[in-house]
Each structure stands twice: as structure tokens, then as C-alpha cells.
Specification:
With 562 residues, the protein is α/β, with parallel strands linked by helices. The chain has 18 helices and 13 strands. The strands form 3 sheets. The chain has a 7-stranded mixed sheet, with helices on both faces. The N and C termini lie far apart (72 Å). It binds pyridoxal-5'-phosphate (PLP). GO terms for molecular function: glutamate decarboxylase activity; pyridoxal phosphate binding.
Length: 562
């Protein structure tokens, strides 16, 4: 008996079994707990009637999350995505610690206070060497900004009431490029926002224009250290000088809040001589996101006040902790403490030299990337060199029409390769300006920059090719060489299987891309004509649009993300 025949005999037996009991044949594959649940519906709206094994729930959720974008390739976000193992270990270690239980977790409170003090000193708060700073940890810069707005409003209102003046119409002055959380803060706390409009080639608030909007009801002016749109720093030193003069002339007492969500952990290390923080007399409060360039995991921000004078005592809730007074000023009560502990780890581990090395390296990488983008000859920069480590770039207006696509099409195409590079429009008044933005964070390397540049180049060429063939298709339709509304048989034409009457020999010469493009343009024409004609009951041929990209829909605020 040959080996072969032995095998055949054995397998023959198995095969017989398989026909009878097909599930048994795949027994090994279906042995896991997860497999047993593989054909079950996963609940979306209601609780399941029964529990499921932990490993199954874990696998189901992990599998679903695989559909999310890859955080490492998410160049849209300022929020950190890479952490040392020690950060993960610490987060796990304090997973069950509720930050608000001051009495039970005094060391956690102490660590929090140390973070506040270190950041206050970093931002030149006028506190003595061994003195604590005034501030608190928050969920992010948004909560920090809400608390700062409340403090400014309360302080202004108290002063107005004390002077017997109307305190019912507070306003705050800010550039129209503020992040959306400012709109929320203004609405939630009933403060009128006075936006300084941007204009062409100026993407940040101009201090002189801000001063023009100030009046006796102004609770403060917001200065941004690194705007969400282009990463540019506003001129806070100039704003401070102008406010000093204005306050002196008018007797007002208008201070500055600096939104340093991203810039707070960049400027002190990359531009140590830049004046933007408490070193300036009128800067009264500052917010910074610990989870952005602070490098901590998502869920931590900080708000600092120049001194206790600028944080009205009525807003602070006092908790008596082991005989000592523990102050609390937050919007919510319970929250995890992992991000606070992770922030302390980072401050302790990196120190000044560590943060300096990281931030300078990121800035250098951003400059390398910016230089290459400009050298491609296809884009110009909107980000300033003296800014956050990010690159905001756009296509020249005349190119968009010429090549037949825009930044939105590029972003969508890059997404297919896994890159998340957002396209958005600038702040109100400059909404016609489209741009792309790459935020350089830890994990972005020279190698990654090269890969992205290569993919941008390929994507650009590919879109240009597609837009080109669509344009030829459109021209063919317009010139009558091809019927404007291809009948269903045009599928044959588009796939090269048959011909449409009236298409002539031209179709023979079309490339595969052209045929698809022709079909797409034609189908769109037919759809548009049908819709329009149905509405207006007249025969109006609709011109196809061949610019690929933004659908022109207006959103309240553009797609700049944080
Ligand atoms: C300038 C600025 N302020 C505030 C925020 C809100 O920060 P967070 O996401 O930490 O709440 C962002 C987010 O990107 C920002 O860029």
C-alpha cells in the first residue's frame, strides 16, 4: 500500500464524515468561546438578556474598534497618541482611584497640587520659589476655559455691583479663529462674544482690532498661543501693552486669558524668550491641555490663575481634608485620576531638558515636512514658522480649477491609504480658504514624513489624472461626440464590451479610466437633469461639475479638529 493510498483511504473516511456532519469537520475552528457567539446579533440599543464570557465581549469590542482610524496615522489631532509603558502601568495602577475622594487619596491630591505648581512656575506665575500655584486639573482645555470664563465674569460682576453699575451685559473679546469650546463657554455662561474678524493673509487676532471692541462690560480678552487652524501664536505681548495703556486711560480693569491649549507646553521649551505668560502684567489666567503637547493620555487639562486674587472665592468649594482646607473648583465631581498621575510622571521623568528635546525635535520635523511641501511646488504654507509643530498648507486658488480637485478630495484619497490629514476651511470671514493640516506629534518621524510626502505626491497625480479624464468626458458630451445621457447599454461602452449609438469611433480610443469617468459624468447628468426637470417641468440641460472635492456645505464652524 503506498503512502498515497493510505492517505486517500484515511481522508476518504473523513470526507464521508464531513458530508454527514459538516460542523464537525470545522470543529477546531469553532472551538473558541468567541466562535460560539459569532452568529449572534450584537446588541445596540437594549441589554442582552444573558451575560457573555469576558473574552467574547473583549473580542467583539476590539473587532469593532478595528474599524476606527489608526491613532498613529491620525495627523488631525493635537492629542497625544504614544506613551511609554510606564504611563500605561501607572494608569492601570490607579484605575480605581476617584480623584475627588481627597480624604481617601491624599497623595493623589498632593501629586495634583505639585503638577499645578510646576506648571504655574513654568508659566512665570508670581509665586515664591517654594510656594504653590493657584489652579486645578480639568478634563481638558475646554473645562479649563469654562472655569476661567466663570472667574472673569464673577470678578467683573462683583466690581460692577460694588460700583453701583449695571452688571447684566458681560462680553468677552476674542479672535474669530477661537476653538469651538469658546463659543460653548460664551453660550453656557451667558457672556456675549465679540469676535475680531480675520482678513486675507492675517489668520490671527490683531491686538489693535481687539482693543477697538473692548468696553466697560468686557470681562477679558482671549489671546491664543497656537491657533487650532494654523498653529500661529497671537501677539500677546502687544495685546498686554495696549491693554495697560487702555486700562490706564479709561479706568477699566480688563485682563487677558491665554488659551495655551497647545502652545503652553511648546513655547517655554522652543521659544523661551517669547513673552506670553504671567510675566506679562495683564495675563490673569492660562489654560493648557496636558493631553496635547503635555504628552499625557486624553482627559487632562490645567487652568492656572496669576494669584488667588483672580479666582473669586465664591466659586471655590472647600472640603475639609484631614484638618487642612482643600479647595475644589471643577465643573464635575467624580473623575479618574490616571491622567493626573500620568502628567506627574511626565513632568518628573522629562523635566525641562526632556520637554525641550521633544518639542525641538517635533518642531524640526515640522520644518522638514513644511520645506518638502513647499518644494513640491504644489502647495503654499499657511502656518507660520514660529508656531506649533504643525504644517498647514493649501493649493493655490488657480491650481484648484486647473487640476480639477481640491484639498477635500486629497484628504479623502489619503484616507484610503490610512492617513488622517484633515481638510477644512479657515475661520469665519475666511471660509473660502481651504487647507490641509498635519499635526506633528511624538511618533512622527523623518521616515513617516517621507512616506506621507510620497503618498501626497501619488494622490495628487492620481486625482489629477482622474480629473483630467473626467474633463475630457465632459467635453465629449458637450461637443455632442457622445450622447449626453447614456442609456443603460452605455455600461457596455464604459466597460468596452459594446458601443452606444452616436458615440462613434471616439469610444474605441478611450482609455479605461476615461470610459469610467464618462459613465460617471453621464450618469450624474442624467440624475441632475431628471431631478431638475421634475422640479421645473422644463428641459434644461445641467452642466456637469468636474471639480472633485468639497461639497460646499456650510457648517457652523469649519472642520478644524483638536
Ligand atoms: C486653541 C485651543 N483651545 C482649546 C481647545 C480645546 O481643548 P481640549 O480638547 O483639551 O478641550 C483646543 C483643541 O484643540 C484648541 O486648539
Amino acid at each position: 500500500m503506498t503512502l498515497h493510498s493510505v492517505k486517500r483511504k484515511k481522508y476518504g473516511k473523513d470526507q464521508k464524515r464531513q458530508v454527514k456532519e459538516p460542523v464537525d469537520y470545522n470543529e477546531a475552528l469553532f472551538q473558541s468561546e468567541f466562535a460560539a457567539f459569532s452568529i449572534e446579533e450584537v446588541p445596540r440599543h437594549e441589554l442582552r438578556s444573558h451575560s457573555m464570557p469576558a473574552s467574547v465581549a473583549l473580542s467583539l469590542i476590539k473587532q469593532e474598534l478595528e474599524l476606527d482610524g489608526n491613532p498613529a496615522l491620525n495627523l488631525a489631532s493635537f492629542v497625544s497618541t504614544r506613551y511609554e509603558d510606564e504611563v500605561r502601568q501607572l494608569c492601570d495602577h490607579v484605575l480605581s482611584v476617584n480623584w475627588i475622594d481627597f480624604d481617601e487619596y491624599p497623595q493623589t491630591v498632593d501629586i495634583h497640587n505639585r503638577c499645578v505648581s510646576m506648571i504655574a512656575h513654568l508659566f512665570h506665575a508670581p509665586v515664591g520659589e517654594a510656594e504653590e500655584g493657584v489652579g486645578t486639573g480639568t478634563v481638558g482645555s475646554s473645562e479649563a476655559i469654562m472655569l476661567a470664563v466663570l472667574a472673569m465674569k464673577w470678578r467683573w460682576r462683583k466690581a460692577r455691583r460694588a460700583a453701583g453699575k449695571d452688571a447684566s451685559r458681560p462680553n468677552m473679546v476674542m479672535g474669530s479663529e477661537v476653538q469651538v469650546c469658546w463659543e460653548k463657554a460664551m453660550m453656557y455662561f451667558d457672556v456675549e462674544p465679540k469676535y475680531v474678524p480675520l482678513h486675507d493673509d492675517v489668520y490671527v487676532m490683531e491686538p489693535e482690532r481687539a482693543l477697538e471692541l473692548c468696553d466697560e462690560n468686557t470681562i477679558g480678552v482671549c489671546g491664543i498661543l497656537g491657533t487650532t487652524y494654523t498653529g500661529e501664536f497671537e501677539d500677546i505681548e502687544r495685546l498686554d501693552a495696549l491693554l495697560t495703556k487702555k486700562n490706564k486711560e479709561t479706568g477699566w480693569d480688563i485682563g487677558i486669558h491665554v488659551d495655551a491649549a497647545s502652545g503652553g507646553f511648546v513655547a517655554p521649551f522652543v521659544y523661551p524668550n517669547l513673552k506670553w505668560d504671567f510675566a506679562l502684567r495683564n495675563v490673569r489666567s492660562i489654560n493648557v491641555s496636558g493631553h496635547k503637547y503635555g504628552l499625557a493620555p486624553p482627559g487632562i487639562g490645567w487652568v492656572l490663575w496669576r494669584s488667588a486674587e483672580y479666582l473669586p472665592d465664591e466659586l471655590v468649594f472647600h472640603v475639609n481634608y484631614l484638618g487642612a482646607d482643600q479647595a475644589s473648583f471643577t465643573l464635575n465631581f467624580s473623575r479618574g485620576s490616571a491622567q493626573i498621575i500620568a502628567s506627574y510622571y511626565l513632568l518628573l521623568r522629562l523635566g525641562r531638558s526632556g520637554y525641550t528635546t521633544v518639542m525641538r525635535t517635533l518642531k524640526e520635523l515640522a520644518e522638514y515636512f513644511a520645506d518638502a511641501i513647499v518644494a513640491s511646488g504644489r502647495f503654499y504654507l499657511l502656518s507660520d514658522r514660529k508656531s506649533l509643530p504643525l504644517v498647514a498648507f493649501a493649493m493655490p486658488d488657480e491650481d484648484r480649477e486647473r487640476v480639477g480637485f481640491d484639498e477635500y478630495a486629497l484628504a479623502a484619497e489619503l484616507r484610503k491609504r490610512g492617513w488622517i490629514v484633515p481638510a477644512y476651511t479657515l475661520a469665519p470671514k475666511l471660509e473660502h480658504r481651504k487647507l490641509l493640516r498635519v499635526v506633528v506629534r511624538i511618533g512622527f518621524t523623518r521616515d513617516r514624513a517621507e512616506m506621507l510626502l510620497q503618498d501626497i505626491d501619488h494622490t495628487y497625480n492620481h486625482l489629477q489624472h482622474i480629473a483630467g479624464v473626467m474633463r475630457v468626458a465632459q467635453q465629449s458630451i458637450e461637443s455632442g461626440a457622445v450622447k449626453a445621457s447614456l442609456p443603460p447599454e452605455s455600461h457596455h461602452a464604459a466597460t468596452g464590451v459594446g458601443k452606444t449609438s452616436g458615440a462613434g469611433d471616439l469610444l474605441e480610443e478611450l482609455t479605461a479610466d476615461f470610459k469610467h469617468a464618462l459613465h460617471a459624468v453621464s450618469a450624474r447628468n442624467t440624475r441632475n437633469d431628471t431631478k431638475k426637470n421634475a422640479r421645473e417641468h422644463v428641459e434644461v440641460p445641467q452642466k456637469p461639475r468636474v471639480v472633485l472635492g468639497h461639497n460646499g456645505k456650510k457648517t457652523k464652524r469649519s472642520g478644524a479638529v483638536c
